[in-house]
Write a structure and sequence with these properties.
This protein is of the alpha/beta class and 402 residues long. It contains 14 helices and 10 strands.
């Protein structure tokens, strides 16, 4: 029996329903029991003496969490601000920058819908233009993505918002080369790294993007509400949080205005951020090889599961293995069913859940049609995907794969 046949993590470590195969870690993540217990202790500490927590203890706790996250992401703590999620990070950058009429913001058609909405809003407000690079899916390889994006650059391009890992399709973009080539042309990149931390290696300083935002409640398995925004030092003077608060006129000189503003935007539950050191350590300890083995195990399961499912429903693999991390999308055979908007449930998704208790998303393919997206975390195993393949045969027209 291979290591993919059994979960690499004891199901008792998670609060997920053991009778419902949860194959949708990519949407909202799942937090281990131990980390939720840690959060509850922090919440109890907050409520026991709120002034001591927020005024005396909060900043040192936050700095410790920031240091742990910066070490994991290969960056400097001074360049990281905590935010609720990656969408908030995208909005903070776009709302801070002042675009001019006629300037262009470059995106791809694989952009996450919420972040694309933020781009459209910022552009419309300033009279700027949104230029969309079309990436085919299926896609032959990363060079096609790279060239399509660079071909969409013009003399008016001011900013490029690019996914590190595409939410609908799961493809890993060649972000290192794209950031470098765009920067050489004087174009800043805002990287939507919602899925990347804990799925693929992230080295923020080496990447050199002007802006990088990500989620920690997905592959790092922190509590919901843990996200971060990285801003390169020479861009920090122009980026403000969505809520302007006490830091805007603070006389303090012991830390940057960037941190003073982002670290306090009003009273909220800050415990998801403070759980990050424990979450990083907990997940690292699940396998002997630490985080590299966790990432490789999840990726190996994603590759095996997508091969199994593609064969079961008779479709070709839509991209090379080199473009896959721990999520993978498979085009569904055409059955006349239109794609439904995000945050609504596709009829196939509902059938799989109501009849088999399998939770897996069905979403629009940017190139047309629908996608089945799998997400692999340590609590998943190959038998769950065999169960899914068997269930799909009940609802989908199948054909022999090319």
């Amino acid at each position: 029996m291979t290591s993919l046949e059994l979960p690499a993590a004891d199901p008792a470590l998670w609060r997920l329903d053991p009778h419902s195969p949860y194959l949708n870690h990519g949407s909202f993540g799942a937090c281990p029991r131990a980390i939720l217990d840690r959060q509850r202790l922090l919440q109890d500490r907050l409520e026991n003496q709120p002034v001591t927590f927020f005024v005396r203890d909060y900043e040192p706790l936050l700095d410790a969490a920031r240091a742990a996250l910066a070490s994991f992401l290969g960056g400097q703590p001074a360049n990281l601000a905590f935010i609720p999620n990656a969408t908030a990070g995208v909005n903070a950058v776009l709302r801070s920058l002042e675009f001019k009429r006629g300037e262009q913001i470059l995106v791809t058609d694989h952009a996450y819908n919420a972040c694309r909405n933020a781009v459209d809003y910022a552009a419309a407000r300033a009279g700027a233009e949104v230029v969309v690079a079309r990436l085919p899916f299926p896609i032959p390889g990363p060079e096609v993505a790279r060239q399509r994006i660079l071909d969409a650059v013009t003399s008016k391009t001011r900013l490029a918002m690019l996914d590190h890992v595409s939410s609908p399709t799961g493809i890993v973009l060649p972000i290192q080369s794209l950031v470098r080539e765009l920067d050489q042309g004087g174009i800043d990149t805002l990287v939507d790294g919602a899925h990347a931390p804990g799925m693929v290696p992230v080295r923020l300083d080496a990447l050199g993007a002007a802006y990088y935002t990500g989620n920690c409640h997905k592959w790092l398995c922190a509590p919901k509400g843990a996200g971060f925004l990285y801003v390169r030092p020479n861009r920090q003077d122009r980026i403000r949080p969505l809520a302007i608060s006490h830091g805007a006129n603070s006389p303090r000189r012991d830390r940057s205005r960037f941190l003073l503003e982002f670290d306090w935007t009003g009273t909220s539950d800050v415990t998801p951020w403070l759980c990050l050191p424990a979450a990083i350590e907990f997940m690292s300890g699940r396998l002997p090889g630490g985080w590299p083995e966790v990432m490789e195990r999840n990726r190996a399961l994603a590759l095996a599961a997508r091969r199994l499912l593609a064969q079961a429903i008779g479709v070709a693999l839509p991209c090379p293995d080199s473009m896959i991390g721990s999520i993978a999308s498979i085009p569904l055979p055409a059955d006349g069913q239109p794609a439904v908007p995000l945050l609504t449930i596709d009829p196939l998704q509902e059938q799989l859940f109501s009849k088999f208790q399998i939770e897996i998303p069905v979403m629009p393919n940017p190139s047309g049609g629908r996608l089945l997206r799998i997400s692999c975390q340590l609590y998943n195993s190959l038998p769950q995907y065999r169960q899914l393949a068997s269930a799909l045969a009940r609802f989908l027209p199948t054909r022999a794969a090319d």
